[in-house]
Amino acid sequence: MMKRNSKQYFSLPSIIGRGKGWVFCFLLTTFTVMAQEHKPFTLHDLIPGGETYHQCTPQNSSYTWWGDQCVKLDVDTLKVWNPAEKSQAKVLVQLDQVNKWLEAADKKPARSLQSVSFPYADKSWMLLQVSREYILLDWQTGKVEWTLPIAEKASNRDWNKTSRHLAYTVDNNLWITTAEGKNIQVTDEPEGIKCGVAVHRNEFGIETGTFWSACGQRLAFYRMDETMVSDYPQVDTDARTAEYNPDKYPMAGTASHKVTVGVYDIATGKTLYLKAGDPTDRYFSNIAWSPCGQYIYMMEHPREQNRAELVRYHALTGEKDAVLITETHEKYVEPMTPITFLPWDDTKFIYQSQQDGFNHLYLYNNKGEKLSQLTQGDWLVQQLVGFNQGRKEVIISTTEVSPLQSNLYAVSVKSGKRRPLGNSEGVHSVVLSASGDWMIDRYSAPQTPRRIEVVSVKTGKMIDTLLEAPDPWDGFNVPEITVGTLKAADGETDLYYRLVKPVDFDPTKKYPIVVYVYGGPHAQMIHNSWNYDVRGWDIYMAQKGYVVFTLDNRGSGNRGLEFENVTFRQLGVEEMKDQMQGVAFLQSLPYVDSNRLGVHGWSYGGFMTTNLMLTYPDVFKVGVAGGPVTDWKYYEVMYGERYMDTPQTNPEGYKNSSLLEKAGNLKGRLLVIHGGNDPVCVPQMTYSFIKACIDKGTHPDLFIYPGHGHNMTGRDRVHLHEHITRYFEDFLK
Amino acid sequence: MMKRNSKQYFSLPSIIGRGKGWVFCFLLTTFTVMAQEHKPFTLHDLIPGGETYHQCTPQNSSYTWWGDQCVKLDVDTLKVWNPAEKSQAKVLVQLDQVNKWLEAADKKPARSLQSVSFPYADKSWMLLQVSREYILLDWQTGKVEWTLPIAEKASNRDWNKTSRHLAYTVDNNLWITTAEGKNIQVTDEPEGIKCGVAVHRNEFGIETGTFWSACGQRLAFYRMDETMVSDYPQVDTDARTAEYNPDKYPMAGTASHKVTVGVYDIATGKTLYLKAGDPTDRYFSNIAWSPCGQYIYMMEHPREQNRAELVRYHALTGEKDAVLITETHEKYVEPMTPITFLPWDDTKFIYQSQQDGFNHLYLYNNKGEKLSQLTQGDWLVQQLVGFNQGRKEVIISTTEVSPLQSNLYAVSVKSGKRRPLGNSEGVHSVVLSASGDWMIDRYSAPQTPRRIEVVSVKTGKMIDTLLEAPDPWDGFNVPEITVGTLKAADGETDLYYRLVKPVDFDPTKKYPIVVYVYGGPHAQMIHNSWNYDVRGWDIYMAQKGYVVFTLDNRGSGNRGLEFENVTFRQLGVEEMKDQMQGVAFLQSLPYVDSNRLGVHGWSYGGFMTTNLMLTYPDVFKVGVAGGPVTDWKYYEVMYGERYMDTPQTNPEGYKNSSLLEKAGNLKGRLLVIHGGNDPVCVPQMTYSFIKACIDKGTHPDLFIYPGHGHNMTGRDRVHLHEHITRYFEDFLK
């Protein structure tokens, strides 16, 4: 990590100056001026993918747990430290030594130790992946204890540390390599049916398609039949002759895929499917095993998404055993987290629900009886991190301190009593040790770029600092960034905004403004993390003399169910009303030039940007909309129908939220940008909008990033922000 | 046709003014000012597809021949006039009467008489197409003499007036409906093989895929196997979910289609294929029947296009009979016109060739012996229009008067003596009467919007004026348009340019310039037609204060073989040198602001525009490139390899002409526009260029017209020109 500050600059001339007086003077002058005036940022400093981006990002380090001992993971060295003993960190092993052992065992060398893990608290074994092989290596004896080959083309790998079996997919089918190295083809489905992968387009918290029972002897998996789903015709224009690469994409109101859940039993070598009935227009989510591996629990919900049931199945027969919990809501129920059994009592589990308006924890027994509500309040549980078994506490992160934060708590499962853990500032992310007695706590706060600490769960106190990252923007001319609240259009709800003033701010001047907007569910743009989560591009624009403003409107994340679901069946309407509250606030500021108001956003924010340009054509002068939704009928079934129902059942809502219908309203300058192969908001979104504008005689601008998906990543992200910036400079400056 | 002039404006107040004095004065003032200042054009006036475009286009009328009698075709009335008798025009028949006859025969009514024809000089029969039926109606007796149903989905219809059989295609196969109404399926090929349609992507003058023998008893047809050709993945984004609509598109250097020629014989009901050998990488073009229907002639040329042979086949056996003529050229031979037999001697035919450097006529006998060169000189024959049988003359149009013109001549087949026919000004297009004694001569010249005259072929003189179109731009403020010549970069060749000065031109001012460029083979932008063929958009830009300049560089059409083939294997290089001669000329003009030089072109002109922007980045400030070729490897085999050979045999040439290689040079503002479904210059052209620019960190602008092909047609063409204009106004003004 390079550090640029005045100290460093001043130290330089005194060395160079020893022999050459004139050089001394020249350099001294130059560096002094730089230190006073600060360096300007480039987009490469501020945008992920930029050449100097890592130098302008807070320093980071990798840590993990071996049982209750903390391990620092570097490329060349592993260091270990026992917080219980408050010992000095000592070297566990070095890469050279590891590679000597591997060579002796006729294995290929490892390139780095940064991604090893320690699956067994009671064994001095590290898990390495070298070339196409898993290796368990004993760092005390130097012995390779176990290896497992990784099949060619294996994707979606899921390894169970108890049985050491490996599940994975090849093309559209599911395979297992057993701990002994035997390859089993679990499914043999034709193209169009996918097994062992995440389903329902990763909605409902689904991230994987395989689920090992705790002991690793049974594997539950998703099977998704997409043969009835429309192909979206993506085209690869980078081939010699452009090639057709269709994606299955179920659009709102059209035929959706059918999911079933299979269970493969290593002992019998047989697969059965849970007898859940006709899978047409149904969702199966949040799969969890009972600790014994006898039962599978999952959430079942109809395509309408207005009900969800926790259902238990016999894993050995596939028979339905019981419906334990049923939730309904006139708008939608969105289960996001599988149930979690208490580690010390396998008859009880924790269930998460927004049923009281905020996501909270509920304790149930396995008869489906609610025993208690473990948390409650006008804040929400963000994550169930784990348990402290000794104290019988569940460790969670919540928004209790502030909706902009994420702080840790230990909650007594018996009493519901809550204890704060670690620093009360900022946004925290933790990794618990095996016993749950310790946690590696990584956080940032507005003035804190990054800290990594070890916290004692017992006392709730930090016992050691592993990293205190210096400010990577030291020496740069950083604009003033403030966060505040204003009232939503309902006159009651507090909304958070972030305001970035131009660098070298002069209150007597009038500045152009860019509103950066997202506005959709689940996401939140403003946090009490470093610099309030300001975006690099905001800083760049502030440097170019713009005020940059962001407001998390109703409908966005971390504020509870009613804050979110006010947008139901009419996406965009309430969100825009709130954004106009933000505009009114901006217009009240003496240094803001309301005639030069721009707006920019991506995805849902691209929808919002275009919608604002077309709904308030006399307010917004310039907009840049990226990967926008332009009509919800082109969006997918799972997310889209949750908020909008179907085009058939909510024709008015679809029509009112369609930007195609408003294409004739365009007055200002609007640049629409789309990834040429966007699989999320398909390119049809933008092309149909452009066509609607042409039909109406209006003139948006357009840019396509060939080959890119929903976001421009890598070095092209810098190009994207050059392009966006140029557009505002062309037409808003 | 609406005519706007001062007379009309002055007549208005005197009527309105009768009762209301103050209205009178107000209107008088207003209209007087308008009359003096002239009306400004809108894009709707100037661009095809615009709402008022037809009002600003020279008036036109439809005429045809019934034998040697001239017929005027109107919606409601047919009028006939006999030039030999210099009679008064009289009504032949009216629509009402025609529809009464049709109703009596239980036929549906005709909507218009504008597209009837008169196939038989000796019969008072008109051919109508009403609903899905051909009808021969006798206008003297009112009797329906013959009808033929048109099959559903019939395309590419080809009717023979002698046999009255109708050939057509349904999907990819060829059918015939006989004069008696019997349906015959001629071919039964699977998808991927097309029969009865134009092949070789309409190069080599190919416009149709069926060829009736003179008596209409045998049908030659193309069969094209495209199964080995790459699919270009076109996408219809206007469907509910975007749909995949692939086109077969053989790109330079990749597998090309295979063509064979079939002959169906009505008498035997059998099809044979000409025994031309392996069709791999060969072209079969310029199909012609011997007058007796016993032989088929065609040009055969290898994929390399450096040789062409006129070959004769027995139509009854498919056997090759003789190779009559062979032409070779180290660059390319491009046969464009089938041989034409003399109507009075079926042992002799006229062959057209550029072998002496210009396209001229040669008389051959059917042994393949050259009898004479009928025309010669540093000008070229543009069209063989027909024959005057009485005088044994062939009627042709040529560039003899000027390369910018097309004038008619009668050439004695015996002596080669040439007589001019009709007016020596402008660009003429004629239709000969049955005997060839008369012609309907339609032409325009710089000061003549359009004239239609009847010319006696015998005297060469005009004998009657059918139409003298008034100036549709009368009353508008039309800029000064001039044509001149300057020297090409070779220092010798004269090149023609057209210069449009800004309206209300002030020689003391400095004006921005837009160079409009095409520059590719076959085409020519400047003609001695009305206003020198100025484009409507040129006028619009002149009105906005731009100088608009166009230069037909070497490589373009109508100037002979060497003028064209100087570009061989290095498209763009010589063309750009010549365009820079034009720029030097512009820079010499005192009223031109060389710092504000823009360039615009489409297709080959899009290639030229982009190439100029990237090759002379300090000369051109703003460019708009439409449907550009960006790399010849993405263009088709037939046209592309003629000029460039293949990427395998001319790697240097392809690399040097590739705009992808120059993408990093972009300095000015370049807008690239492409039709979303362009089947000619495929969208990959633009997307690969945009990607190359992104890779190099340069920033072109982009616009896509979803659903459009190689050109924007209809009302969207106005939108296109609004968009192009705005770009120059944004960045060049």
What's the short story on this structure?
Chain A has 733 residues and is α+β, with helices and mostly antiparallel strands. Chain A has 12 helices and 44 strands.
Report on the structure:
The structure is a homodimer of 733-residue chains. By secondary structure, the first copy, chain A, is α+β, with helices and mostly antiparallel strands. Chain A has twelve helices and 44 strands. The first copy, chain A, has an eight-stranded mixed beta sheet, with helices on both faces. In chain A, strands 12, 13, 14, 19 and 20 form a five-stranded antiparallel beta sheet that branches. A four-stranded antiparallel beta sheet of chain A has the order 1-2-3-4. In chain A, 47% of the residues are buried. Mean pLDDT of chain A is 94; it is low at 1-36. The interface between A and B is large, with 42 and 42 residues.
Give unreliable regions of chain A as ranges.
1-36
Query: Which pair of protein chains has the largest interface, and what are the residue counts?
Result: A-B, 42 and 42 residues
Order the strands across the largest sheet of chain A as they lie in space. Answer: 37-38-40-39-41-42-43-44
Beta-strand content estimate of chain A: 25-35%
What key phrases describe this protein's structure?
12 helices; 44 strands; 34% strand; alpha+beta; homodimer; Thrombin, subunit H; 733 residues; 8-stranded mixed beta sheet; globular; 5-stranded antiparallel beta sheet
